[in-house]
Design a protein that fits this description.
156 residues, 70% helix, transmembrane helix
Length: 156
Amino acid sequence: MLNNNEQNSLQRKPERQKKLRLAPLLLLLGGVVIMGTLLMVAWQVYTTNSQSSSAGRTATQKQGGSGSQDAPFWDNYPAIYWKTLRTQVAQGFHMSEQQMQSAVNVTKDPEDGKHGMLGKPLSDLATAHGISQDQLHTIEVNAVQKAHAILVSQGG
């Protein structure tokens, strides 16, 4: 028979073997969890990027384009929008539209003949009339809001 020391050492050996088997299993499980997390993050990034790029293409196509970015969206605004903007800004400066146009020397864009304002910036005119930058900003915001309200009321 075995003495007490030998019996104790034999009983401990299986415990050591169980502990040694458990460490690689935990290491493998940790690796699987980390890889799974990385794959999920990569999938989220991929799907988010593909959704946003397809949404951008859809929005461009809904604007009437074939996906090209040649013309800005405001080129499709009706004349009443631009008229309202000019009127509102002129009223903010306490001027008529004609006075305003001559003061900033507005000309149409020679390339497309559209709503371009090639001339003196409004900020220069505002400074000359004693209008602060904050007041100018308020005038511009109010003009845009009024012009958009008119578009909405007309269903445009």
